[in-house]
Amino acid sequence: MRLTHTALRAASATLGLALVLACGGGGSSVAGNHYPLTASVAVVCVNNDPADNIHILIGGEAFDPAVNRVSPSSTLNRTSPLTYKWDTATDTVTITIFAGRGGNVIDQGDVTLTGDDRMQGKRIRAVWNANQTLTVTKQ
Q: What does the alpha-carbon distance between residue 105 and residue 83 come to, in Å, rounded to a whole number?
């Protein structure tokens, strides 16, 4: 089968749009109904402790120094290892973030994202303040 230049361009544009939508829209302002939406979420993990590491875990993931350990006074940008599903713009998903050391959870927090939040590219911010407290917000 031989594709013409126009057909090839159309196929490329369709594939590009499919990739954007499969990745959660990336905050796109493209009109239309992109639901159901299945996507991961971005998490900004901040360790404000100047002396000790902290593990910031997304959902039920295991402690893993190579994946979720945040060094003192630093930030780690992550993508959730799980995907979540929204059937409509107003559907909600609650995601639990944990903070811990040595395999023990010290604190946890929940954040709720709507399908619209995810389509707008909102993410989770998890901040460890060195006083045994994790603050989890949507940004």
A: 23
Token pair, residue 47, equals 């360790």
Q: Which amino acid is at 52?
A: D
pLDDT tens, position by position, 26-40: 444 444 578 999 999
Token digits of residue 102: 């040595």
State both tokens at 32: 């239309």
Mean pLDDT of 41-65: 97
Query: 86-137, pLDDT tens digit by residue?
Result: 999 999 999 999 999 999 999 999 999 999 999 999 999 999 998 999 999 9
CA 13 to chain centre: 26
DSSP 8-state code for residue 89 = T
User: Among residues of the chain, what percentage have pLDDT more than 90?
Assistant: 73
Cβ neighbour number for residue 23 with a 10 Å cutoff: 11
**Helical H runs in 38-114?**
none
Tokens of 63: 């402690």
Residue among 100, 92, 97 nearest 109 (CA) = 97
SS3 at position 5: helix
Please tell me the distance from the alpha carbon of residue 102 to that of residue 24, in angstroms, as a whole number. Answer: 34
